[in-house]
C-alpha cells in the first residue's frame, strides 16, 4: 500500500478518537470549536445559511462529534502529509 493511504487511514482513526474525546467535553449549549467555526462561516454567507446559523442554540453530541472528527481528520492528515513529504525528501 502507498504510504499516503496509510496516512489517510491513520488520520481517520486518530481524527475519530480525538473528535469523540473533544465532543464529550462539549456541552449542549456551549459547543466545541469546530461547531463555532462552521457557524461563523454560515454567518458570513447569504440567505438560508445565515438564518440557519442564527437559529441554532443547542447542539447534540452526534453533531458535535461529526464536526470535531471531520476537522481533526483534516488537520492531522494535512500536517502528516507535510511532515511525510519533508522527511521523504531528505531520504
Please provide a written account of the structure:
The chain has 91 residues and is mainly α. The protein contains four helices and no strands. Helix 1 runs antiparallel to helix 4 and helix 2 crosses helix 4. The radius of gyration is 16 Å and the shape is elongated.
Short description:
The protein is an all-alpha fold. The chain has helices at 3-25, 33-43, 48-55, 61-90. The chain has one domain (3-90).
Give the tags.
4 helices; 91 residues; mainly alpha
Q: Helix and strand succession?
A: HHHH
Enumerate the spans where pLDDT stays under 50 for 5 or more consecutive residues: none
The largest β sheet comes out as: none
**What is the CA–CA distance across the termini?**
19 Å
Q: What's the count of strands?
A: 0
How many discrete structural domains? 1
Overall morphology: elongated
Helical stretch tally: 4
β-sheet strand percentage: under 5%
Would you tell me the overall average pLDDT? 87
Summing up helix and strand content along with how strands pair, one would put the structural category as: mainly alpha
Radius of gyration: 16 Å
Helix fraction, binned, reads: over 70%
Amino acid at each position: 500500500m502507498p504510504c499516503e493511504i496509510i496516512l489517510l487511514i491513520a488520520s481517520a482513526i486518530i481524527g475519530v478518537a480525538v473528535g469523540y474525546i473533544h465532543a464529550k467535553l462539549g456541552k449542549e449549549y456551549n459547543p466545541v470549536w469546530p461547531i463555532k467555526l462552521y457557524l461563523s462561516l454560515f454567518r458570513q454567507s447569504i440567505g438560508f445559511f445565515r438564518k440557519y446559523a442564527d437559529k441554532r442554540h443547542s447542539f447534540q453530541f452526534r453533531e458535535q462529534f461529526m464536526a470535531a472528527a471531520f476537522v481533526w481528520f483534516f488537520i492531522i492528515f494535512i500536517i502528516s502529509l507535510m511532515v511525510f513529504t519533508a522527511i521523504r525528501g531528505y531520504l
